[in-house]
Amino acid sequence: FFFEKKQYLFAGILGALSVMTKTPGILLFGAYGLVFIERMIKGKSFNIKWAWIGLIPVGLLAVFGLYQLQYNDFFAYFHTGGVVPMLYPFSVFNAAGRWVQTVWLEEILLYFFLYLTAIITLKDSKYRSLFYFPLLFFIAGIFVQHRDLSRYLLPIWPFAVIAFEQTFTSRKFRYAFYLLLPAIYLYAWNFLLGNIIPVSDWRPFL
Known about the structure:
This protein is mainly α. It has a domain at 1-83. It has nine helices and no strands. The protein is globular. It starts with 7 loop residues before the first helix and ends in a 12-residue tail after the last helix. 20% of the residues are buried.
């Protein structure tokens, strides 16, 4: 929002907060950078206010600097053992992968198809960051080797909603949504029953 309103200071601050919260936020910096490159190619000009976007990588360096102070390891994030591997494109389709362990991945193909169609739809949007950010996120996502890839790709979902706005606001879609409400309810109920953290002592959380 702030970026498209050309309020680059606020865009940089919020971008820095996003990357300090979740490292994939650094893709915002890449997306904004591509927008600036496109503007320079088309307009042959440079705006010094664009530099505020540099706060985004500064936020990431600040977090890594904190790791250095606390753990004496600047790259502690990558040494936790919980970082999902990013090996090669579409590496999720490997049942032997540590974080995959299944061949039942047909819904992943549907997500790829849905999100890529949305990105192609946004290609000509006048709000260029709405195209470049999901594009970079999708490219990064196809390298992720994890069964729960749909969760990793969730940041693209709002852009898909924008791309398919006419479909999601149509009467036909509303009819389908209302008819599927019982299924949505049963899915959520079933998920809540099974998604329980095995904690034997709840006192630290009270």
